[in-house]
Amino acid sequence: MATYTTVATFNRDVWSPKDVDVRFIQTAATMATAYIDAALNASYTVPFSTTYPPIIVTISDLLTKLITENLVFKGPSPKVRDIEEAGGDLNPIAMLRDIASGKISIPGLTRLTGTQSWVSTGDQMHIFDLDHPIAHEPDSDRLDDIDDDRVNYP
Q1: Domain limits for position 67
Q2: What pLDDT, in 10s, does the model give residues 127-153?
Q3: φ, ψ for residue 67 (rounded to 5)?
Q4: Which of 42, 79, 97, 152 fits a 20 to 30 Å CA distance from 136?
Q5: Does 113 map to a domain?
C-alpha cells in the first residue's frame, strides 16, 4: 500500500536504521495513511493522487513519528488519544479534524459538495396493514374532490 510518508527518507532523516527497525516505520506509515484517508473520506476524494498535498505529507510524517514512538516504546496497539496527547502544539489529529470540519482547507483541492446525509432502512422492518385487493374500491367522494382540485388549480 502506498503511504503519504516516504519511509526510506523518513527513516534516514528522523532515526538511524540502527535505532528503529524500518518495519516499525512502515507499519506506522501505513496506519497514518489509513487514518488520514478515513478522517478525510467525507470531505475529499481519497486516497490523494500521486502528487500529495504538502499538508497531508506533513500530517502523515507527524503521525508516522508519533505512531512509531508508540509502537517501539509502548507496545503494538497505539490509541488515538495517546497519539493526540503526544502531538503537543503541532497536533496532527487536531489538524485532520480541522480539515475534515472545513475549518481549514487543503490548498489546490476541492472539497466534496453535499451534506453527505442519507437515510438507510437496512435494519428496519416495515409492516403494512393492507386490505385485500378485492376490498379496494374507489371512494367516489374523494374522486370528486380530486377532480375539483384539478379544475380549480391556478
Answers
A1: 7-101
A2: 666 666 776 777 778 888 888 888 887
A3: -70, -40
A4: 152
A5: no
